[in-house]
C-alpha cells in the first residue's frame, strides 16, 4: 500500500524489474500483494514454522504488527529513504533460541547469528548445521561473518574468507560487500538512491 501511495509508476516498475504476474508487469497494488504473498509463503513461512515447531525461534506477532504500523505511518518523504526495516519502533519479531553448539538450519535460529554447515536443498532432506561464532577477519567462511565483514573470495588463494566491508567508490560484486549495502550497476559501492522520489 505504501509503495502505491508514495512511488511513481516508473519507480514501481523498476522495483519489480522483469517480474510478471500471469505474464503481466506488476502495475497494481493487487498484483503486488499477490507476488509478495507468493514469495513470503514460498521462501519464508514454512521454514519459520518448522523453526518454531522445533523450538529454535520465537515469533512475536505483536512486534511484527508494531513494525508494520511504523511503516504505515511514515510520510512519503521518509518512506522513500528507508533501507530495510531499521526503523525506530521496529523491534525484532523473530527471537533466536539456539545457543552456540546447538543444531540449526537457519542463521536466524542462532543466538550467535551464524549457522554453519547446514544444507537446505530445494529437493531432498535438509541437514542441520551447528550454531557457531561467526568467523572474523581473514577466517574461512561460507556466508556469515562478524559485523563489519563480508564473505568474499581471496584473490590470492581463491578461498572464501571474511573481508572488511568496502566503502563508497570501491569495487564490489554484491550489495552485501558494501558498508552502504548497495553495489551500483558499475560494480562500485555507493550511497543507495532513494527508493521513491514521491508522488
Which tags fit this structure?
199 residues; alpha+beta; three-stranded antiparallel beta sheet; two-stranded antiparallel sheet; 5 helices; globular
Describe what this molecule looks like in 3D:
- With 199 residues, this protein is an alpha+beta fold.
- Helices cover 28% and strands 14% of the residues.
- The protein has 5 helices and 9 strands.
- A 3-stranded antiparallel beta sheet has the order 5-7-6, with no helix packed on it.
- The model has no long low-confidence stretch (mean pLDDT 88).
Ranges with pLDDT <50 over ≥5 residues? Answer: none
Mean pLDDT: 88
Which strand order spans the largest sheet, edge to edge or round the barrel? 5-7-6
Strand content: 5-15%
Biggest sheet, in brief?
Answer: 3 strands, antiparallel
Q: How helix-rich are the residues, as a percent range?
A: 25-40%
Instruction: Kindly report how far apart the N and C termini lie.
Output: 14 Å
User: What's the number of helices?
Assistant: 5
Question: How would you spell out the order of helices and strands?
Answer: HHEEHEHHEEEEEE
Specify the structural class. alpha+beta
**What is the general shape?**
globular
Number of strands: 9
Radius of gyration, CA atoms, in whole angstroms? 19 Å
